[in-house]
Amino acid sequence: VSRTATAALSALGRRIAEPPISWLMKQTLEHPGLISLAAGFTDNPSLPVAETSKVLRELLADSGAAQVALQYGSTPGDAALRQLTARHLQALDTGRTTRNVSPAWSPDRLLITHGSQQLLYMITEALCDEGDIVIVEDPTYFVFLGIAQSRALRCRGVPLTPQGLDLDALERLLDSLHRAGDLKRLKFVYLVTYHQNPSGLTSTLANKRAVLTLLRHYERRAGHPIFLVEDAAYRELRFGGKDVPSLLKVKGAESRVIYAGTYSKPFATGIRVGFGVLPEALFTTMARIKGNHDFGTAHLLQQILVGALASGRYDAHLADLRVRYAHKAAVMKAALLEHFPPFVEWCEPDGGLYFWARLPGRMKTGRQSRVFREALAGGVLYVPGELCYADDPSRDKPDCEMRLSYGGASEKLVPEGIRRLGAVIRAHA
Ligand SMILES: Cc1ncc(COP(=O)(O)O)c(C=O)c1O
């Protein structure tokens, strides 16, 4: 941006940094033949082409329904999609597939958004002013960190354990915020609770419940509710283990929990329809913000999902998808066993799109590191772990990890990418 143009920018416009995602995509364009294990893209051949074309054909064959679909919709979203989504969530949480939905999953508190990304952005608009504090997982979803950076939020990271957030560390942080007089600036805790991006970990219900209890304890001192955002973007891409209920199932939690869901990963990333189940006290504010953004997510795209969900094609597609990702994860695992030296730690995900690998601390993986530059030169791209850590002044960012995705790269390229990366790591051992 030129100097004269900069003078015209808002504080946010001046502050906003290049999103890592744009930088990573630029690397892909600048290095032809690169195998990207970085992108969180879904698997192209798995996308529901036949299902979508059937749903669209049926929809467009009925001129009345087609006219409705091709018209603006309403700000909170299509009534049928909100109902189907609420029912779907209740079924995920309880196993009950009844038509009636209990108040915990009420469609009246459900807002359809343009991807869950829009919901995440709107949450910061509804709750946060510059300088407010958000607690995130260490590591966390790096695109959320971009939102926080541009909006001048202070992020504090709490380490992750295999069960979820480290509860002792969370309590210590809440206590230190209280002692520093900062608790009133803490607005919400952001958790990616299923097959987390980037670590692959799933939080247990007991852990999530304990986080909520701690927040409730401290909110008396904060003087306002402290919300908990449960981002469940990868929930339905589970191919192992048992499904864990969301916090919506916990009695009384609905006044504090914001459940962020999406149809991107389980159906089509190009349709980009997401949703939030919001506490009643936030719904009107969030709907007004949505009204100012776009007064409603693209109606035709919502209708595709209504058709897919109501016809059962969504569930059938998801069953295939799970098998496919289980297979791709197994392909990556076999390649890691074959090509990565044993001093690299990684654990096997039971859903989602990612392996998270940790090198010994002395081996840096960041954008400026030799490992990263040589991997690029050798034709493979990963997400440097450092990008997934908030700018938390109380600790240094770990810089020896990498996120490896088996989502976008083909079955043939996944092992080749891991082979190339393994060779770089061995050369630096
Ligand atoms: C953890 C997490 N949340 C939210 C999103 C946003 O997805 P969408 O806007 O497509 O729903 C993503 C996308 O990669 C993600 O990884």
Characterize the structure shown:
With 429 residues, this protein is an alpha/beta fold. The protein has 15 helices and 14 strands. It has helices at residues 3-8, 11-15, 20-30, 49-61, 63-69, 79-94, 115-127, 142-150, 167-179, 205-222, 280-293, 299-311, 313-339, 370-377, 413-428, and strands at residues 35-36, 110-114, 133-138, 154-161, 164-165, 186-192, 227-231, 257-262, 273-277, 345-347, 354-358, 380-381, 383-384, 401-405. The strands form three sheets. Strands 2-9-8-7-6-3-4-5 form an eight-stranded mixed beta sheet, sandwiched between helices. It has a four-stranded antiparallel beta sheet with strand order 10-11-14-13, with no helix packed on it. Strands 1-12 form a two-stranded parallel ribbon. Helix 4 packs across helix 12 (299-311), helix 7 crosses helix 11 (280-293) and helix 9 (167-179) packs parallel to helix 10. The chain is globular. The mean pLDDT is 96. The structure holds pyridoxal-5'-phosphate. Pyridoxal-5'-phosphate is lined by residues 40, 115-117, 141, 192, 197, 231, 233, 262, 264, 269, 272, 274.
